[in-house]
Amino acid sequence: MKFKHYVVSLTLLVAALSASAQSMPTATQKLQLSVFAGGSGVLTDLDGGKNLSFTAGADLAYLNFRLFKPAIEVRGSYPVYDGHIDSLKYILAGPKVEFPLGRRIHPYADFLIGRGEIDYNEGLFIVGPVEYISSNTTVYSPGAGVDYDLFYGFALKGDAQFQHWDSPVVASGVIHPTVVTLGLNYTFNFNPRGYRH
Questions:
Q1: At the topology level of CATH, where does 3-21+36-187 sit?
Q2: What share of the chain is helix, strand, coil (3-state, %, to 5)?
């Protein structure tokens, strides 16, 4: 399946999450939808490759627990500056658990799985008789981060993902990119009492 099909799938999933959260009656709403966007610094783990990427996603959280908040997260990332070695783009989804600390600080951990594409810039990677321009792989991405509440549903986001990608251009067959994201999170106020502030 082409990478663009995953982008379409992500768009449809975010739309479904939004519709699900909005459809809950106000008095009984148990789901909370939030979206985020930001810039990501990526160390690609391939010959010193670096990317500057735009990352965006959405979370659908279940509100029935006091000490933690489970959620399903989807996110995608696309390189704005891809350096001269390689560039990574991906669509991921998976479980997330938030552990609120007080009123404003919300640390979390997630484990995301999805599909990624590596573009080898300028066709630099030749292995035997094959010149690699790009490759596709399943991506495993455990990570952690924190949201710091500001006002009216907005929060600052800091996030780090530690990824596993297969790549045919390295002897080990595997690279481990590190992605650090800084951005903003917005929580929709479908139910005023549902805000975490």
A1: Porin (2.40.160)
A2: 15, 60, 25
SS3 state at 128: coil
Tell me the per-residue pLDDT of 136-164, one tens digit each, with 9 for 90 and over.
999 999 999 999 999 888 999 999 999 99
> Rounded distance, CA 36 to CA 38, Å?
7
Determine how many CB atoms are found less than 10 A away from the CB of residue 160.
Answer: 15
| Distances 193 to 21, 39, 63, 161 between C-alpha atoms, Å | 14, 31, 11, 32
DSSP string of 65-114? -SS-EEEEEEEEEEEEE--SSEEEEEEEEEEEEE--BTTTEEEEEEEEEE
The residue behind tokens 């991405």 is 141
DSSP letter (8 states) at residue 176: -
pLDDT tens for 56-67 read 999 998 877 778
Q: Where are the domains of the chain?
A: 3-21+36-187
pTM value? 0.79
